[in-house]
């Protein structure tokens, strides 16, 4: 069985880097844990770092967090469906919302459960995912600010998550103005402007984050140390907190070009032939992992001479060239991962998870 390994020391370095950064700026933050898919082992290690606030888009994952540590503040980070309101209120202390009717249902459920539920109102800033249009925000707030068992603790936004619209000072400054307008009109304090995600961290590093942005929701940069604007590892952070290790189950010298009439494979692809490779061979290894677990485009071989050739549902084929390292069946190859690769592997029941 292939294994997805979490390097605890590297995760800790990344966490401490971000904690110091946010402490210096007096910014609150929570960790987005949806990448971990509710894995008990990895969630516990996350909590052990001292994280006080965890965000997720799956209620079952937040339920696991509460089972591990009731004191961690849990945040549900997508609009909740009607049928899941009860469970969401039970396991999430805070939720991100953009629909009046949904918040009214949350209020009713919070009254029934005798709980105070906190709300961050999501504001549309151009990426066209969830969010209330700015011109409708005052009326929206007026419709919910007196609902029982509801406390509005912030205005928030998402950028880059759907259409790739990047955060900028021009995109974020209006949120502070909306906050001031609402506070003056209704005499209510809104503590947070939750406009920060991993893609917003470069604005903070370059001292361009608008004043008033005081809450971040961070996932990818914690796990991959990445500057999502420059697409490079941030100095002082690690990009390989996660590593995939997969066993070689066949290793033979074979032709570089398939032999026979070519049709469409189960993935709907037809192989393209490089005629210059006819008659040439290389050592090809088959690994015990496949498309059922991860898309190969999200895997980065640790060794530069290894080339990923393709995959079927349960097997990955790689080109070892001349096999200079004299690898053998039963040995393993290691891969760094892109975010979507780690997410797929975490969601696979066929991949073992372990902590280094």
What would you say this structure looks like, in words?
- This protein is of the alpha/beta class.
- It has 2 domains: 226 residues, TIM Barrel (Alpha-Beta Barrel), CATH 3.20.20.10; 114 residues, Lyase, Ornithine Decarboxylase, Chain A, domain 1 (Beta Barrel), CATH 2.40.37.
- It has 10 helices and 19 strands.
- The strands form 3 sheets. Strands 8-7-6-5-4-3-2-10-9 form a 9-stranded parallel beta sheet. Strands 1, 13, 14, 15, 16, 17, 18 and 19 form an 8-stranded mixed beta sheet that branches. A two-stranded antiparallel ribbon has the order 11-12.
- A hairpin with a 4-residue loop joins strand 11 and strand 12.
- The longest helix has 18 residues.
- It is elongated.
- The mean pLDDT is 95.
How much helix is in the residues?
A: 25-40%
Oligomer classification: single chain
From the spread of the alpha carbons, the general shape counts as elongated
Name the CATH class of the largest domain.
Alpha Beta
Q: Find the CATH topology of the largest domain.
A: TIM Barrel
End-to-end C-alpha gap = 17 Å
Q: Percent of residues in beta strands? A: 25-35%
Please indicate the count of domains.
Answer: 2
Rg calc: 24 Å
Mind telling me which CATH architecture of the largest domain this is? Alpha-Beta Barrel
Largest sheet data: 9 strands, parallel
The secondary structure category is alpha/beta
Order of strands across the widest beta sheet?
8-7-6-5-4-3-2-10-9
Name the CATH superfamily assignment of the largest domain: Alanine racemase
Number of strands: 19
Number of helices: 10
Mean pLDDT comes to 95
Order of H and E elements = EHEHEHEHEHEHEHEEHEHEEEEEEEEHE
Low-confidence stretches: none
């Amino acid at each position: 069985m292939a294994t997805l390994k979490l390097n605890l020391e590297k995760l800790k370095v990344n966490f401490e880097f971000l904690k110091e950064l946010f402490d210096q700026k007096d910014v609150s933050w929570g960790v987005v844990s949806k990448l971990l898919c509710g894995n008990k082992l990895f969630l516990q290690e996350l909590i052990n770092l001292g994280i006080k606030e965890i965000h997720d888009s799956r209620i079952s994952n937040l339920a696991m967090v509460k089972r591990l540590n009731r004191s961690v503040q849990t945040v549900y980070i997508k609009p909740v469906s009607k049928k899941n309101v009860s469970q969401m209120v039970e396991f999430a202390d805070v939720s991100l919302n953009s629909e009046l009717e949904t918040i009214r249902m949350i209020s009713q459920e919070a009254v029934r459960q005798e709980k105070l539920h906190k709300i961050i109102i999501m504001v549309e800033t151009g990426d066209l995912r969830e969010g209330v249009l700015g011109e409708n925000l005052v009326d929206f707030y007026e419709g919910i600010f007196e609902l029982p068992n509801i406390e509005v603790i912030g205005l928030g936004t998402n950028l880059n998550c759907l259409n790739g619209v990047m955060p900028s000072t021009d995109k974020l400054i209006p949120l502070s103005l909306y906050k001031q307008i609402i506070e003056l009109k209704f005499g209510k304090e809104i503590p947070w402007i939750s406009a920060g995600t991993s893609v917003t961290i470069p604005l903070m590093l370059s001292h361009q984050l608008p004043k008033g942005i005081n809450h971040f929701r961070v996932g990818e940069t914690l796990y991959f140390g990445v500057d999502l604007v420059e697409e490079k590892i941030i100095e002082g952070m690690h990009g390989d907190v996660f590593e995939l290790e997969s066993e070689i189950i066949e290793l033979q010298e074979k032709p570089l070009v398939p032999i026979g009439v070519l049709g469409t494979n189960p993935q709907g692809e037809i192989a393209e032939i490089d005629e210059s490779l006819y008659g040439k061979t290389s050592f090809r290894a088959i690994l015990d992992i496949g498309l059922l677990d991860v898309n190969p485009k999200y895997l980065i071989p640790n060794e530069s001479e290894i080339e990923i050739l393709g995959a079927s549902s349960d097997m990955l084929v790689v080109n070892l060239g001349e096999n200079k390292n004299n690898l053998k069946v039963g040995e393993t190859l290691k891969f760094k991962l892109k975010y979507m690769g780690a997410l797929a592997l975490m969601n696979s029941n066929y991949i073992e998870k372990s902590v280094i």
